[in-house]
Structure formats: C-alpha cells, structure tokens
Amino acid sequence: MPDREPDFTWLPDLALRSLGGAVIWANDETFAEKENLINPGPAGFRPATFGHKGQVYDGWETRRRREPGHDEAIVRLGLPGVVRGIVVDTGWFKGNYPPEVSVEALEIQGYPPADQIAAEPGWQTLVGRVKVYGDTRNPFEVTDGNRWTHVRLSIYPDGGVARLRVHGEGKPDLHPLSAGPVDLAALESGGLVLDCSNRFYSSPHNIIFPGLAQVMGDGWETARRRDDGNDWVLLRLGSPGRIRLAEIDTSYFVGNSPAAASLTGVRGDGAHVTLLPRTDLLPDTRHRFPIEDAGVVEKVRLDIYPDGGLARLRLYGEPA
C-alpha cells in the first residue's frame, strides 16, 4: 500500500474545476461521468443508491471491457503549469477499480476541439504504467519540469477512479498580464504560496484562488494560538511588479477573523519594504487598501494578528 502522501500535495491542484479545469474527453463513461474526476473535495458514497445504470458513484467509471484495449480521459488544466505530483484517488471503488494506470501530458496552444487533442501524437509520459490500489489515494511524484496544459489519465483495462489531482506550480501565459493592472498574487497569474506558519484547518493557497469565497471553508484558517506570536503566509508573485492596491477579504470569518494584518514586500536583492503597516481588520468584510509605490517586489509576506482566517488576498499592480 502507498505510504503517507509526499510533500507535493502542499501545492495547488492545477486541474480543479474551481480553477477552470475541465474533463474534455473520455472514450467511455457508461457508469459515472468523467466530469467528477476534478470536483473539489473527496468523493462521497451512499450505499445501495442505484440509478438506471447501477450503483451511483462519485467518480468516473467505465463499462467492463470485452475486447482488448484500455480506457482514457483527458483533463484540460485550469491553470497550465509544471506538474510536481499526481494523485489517482480510487475512493469507494473496491471491486471495480483499475489495477493499473498511467498519466501523460501535453502542451497545446489555442482551443482546438477535444477529438483533435485526443489524436495528438506529442503526449509525454509523467507516470508510467503502474499498479494502483482500490479505495485509496495513490500518489506519484513527477520529476518532469516542463509546462503542460492537458493531462491524460489511462486506466488498464477499465473501471473507476474517483478523483484525479494534479499538483504543481502555475505557469500561465504572461502576455495578457501586460494589458494592464492585474492581481499579481493570483494563482491564475502564476502566484504561489511558498510557506506559512500554520494550515491547521485549510490550505493557504485558498486565499489566491479565483472568485469570491462561498463559505468559510473556501479560505485559509489557522489554529488558535496560545502564545505571543502571530500567523503568516509568504507568497511568490506571478511576476515581479509594483503593487498599487491590496484587498484583504475576511468574508464568512465572523468570530475567527484576525484582529489586524500587515503586508511586507521582498525585493529581488532580498531587501524588505513595508507595503501595508499593521492595520485593524473587521470580520466578514472585503477591505481595500491603497499601497504607496514601494518599487518592484518579487515576494510578499502577509502577517495576521494573532491568528484566524481569511477568504482571499488580492494584490493588484503592474508587472515589471
């Protein structure tokens, strides 16, 4: 059985539907829809819940093959990037999971139709054909350092997979960023959380996800501190730039929002510069703070005092 999950699961899932991911093609989805592969959260299961095609599964499930071959599904990443690890989750699939899988990747420009992408000859192997276990999160580290836009999951010969997680670092097309002020911290801009003090309840990557939070669980929340310190997050901007406006959003955090926050920029030479001094925050509020020009910064540290949670952090400015 696989050991505990490796460190790459700290990185964001580039395939998530909430990042714009889509399952664009599968050769078969007789029992359960391919789109379930990239749904957020773990798969659920209700025993003895039958539809007209059999037991309802929260995942992708193909028919039993009666001829040679194998089944495939293609995912367009919500955020193109470098893949550092993949998790093939067969949760709840016990007598109907595939005994082996492989994963390939492709970088493609524009928006060609799915059938054309499926027929492309340039797919590169990220995870060679390998054994997996049923009802298990099967993790695979990836050492390839190239940028990819699509991944293809192959299952041998058939069966069901609950979730496909593609953890990595976003590498978006930077050309659109030159059109005007953008959120330099956003995952969509190539932003990445490098470190944080605590992620007891939820991942700090949530604060740079697209869109508004819908519930408290969409944000980042730390454990309650019982010392004199404070919690923090260190971010690498998608592109070095000048930050003009910061938005610190505590939406849905009512009794557990931070009392205050500050922002510190880190320049290319390692020098630190204050972007936002320690400033009081309100619960359940989208705060917007103008930032005086502090020059070009590459990283930003957000400190919250003393602990609590945030829904989103936006750092609007111009790329250098």
From TrEMBL:
It is an enzyme of class 3 (hydrolase). Its EC number is 3.5.3.4. One of its GO terms (biological process) is allantoin catabolic process. It catalyses: allantoate + H2O = (S)-ureidoglycolate + urea. GO terms for molecular function: allantoicase activity. Residues 20-169, 190-319 form the Allantoicase domain. Keywords: Hydrolase, Purine metabolism. Pathway: Nitrogen metabolism; (S)-allantoin degradation; (S)-ureidoglycolate from allantoate (aminidohydrolase route): step 1/1. Coiled coil: none annotated. Signal peptide: none annotated. Belongs to the allantoicase family. HAMAP family: Allantoicase (MF_00813). PANTHER family: ALLANTOICASE, INACTIVE ALLANTOICASE-RELATED. This is Probable allantoicase. It comes from Mycolicibacterium flavescens.
